[in-house]
Amino acid sequence: MNRIRWIALLAFLAPAFAIEDSEEQRIAQANRYIAATPPKELFADLADKMASNLPEESRQAFRDFMTKHFDVESLTNSMRNVMTNHFTADELKALADFYGSPVGKSVMKKFGAYMAEMGPVIESELAKAEALATRDLAQ
Question: Is 96 exposed, middle or buried (0-12, 13-18, 19+ CB in 10 A)?
């Protein structure tokens, strides 16, 4: 079979491999994603990495805020609800498949360090934008 026929056949069969885009499937796939990327673990790692950017005397209070006092269960429920509102079951499946894979797990292990390094950059850019906006408003 030539290439064009294969492409046409695959395009025709692609919907057959998609999972049903029902609310139940979206919830199931969102739950798979959350299981692959547990928010509690993500926040604990992020808190630890971000705390390293703070003065020594503030680190434990920040870790406590992010891990003990932050309602991760509420955040997790909100994540699930928002994800199922915006993503199809196939999209959520792809996220769960990736983040559940060895490469995805490796990415997530590095995410806290990435965000800790990016946090000060984002704060700096926001401060610059705020200064420019204030200047523009004053003119």
Answer: buried
pLDDT digits (tens, 9 = 90+) for 94-132: 999 999 999 999 998 898 888 888 988 998 999 999 999
Per DSSP, the three-state class of 5 is helix
Of 69, 77, 59, 70, which is closest to residue 116 (Cα–Cα)? 59
Contact 64, 4 (CB under 8 A): no
Q: Would you tell me how many other CB atoms lie within 10 Å of the CB of residue 51?
A: 20
What's the whole-model pTM score?
A: 0.69
Residue 21 gets which letter from DSSP? -
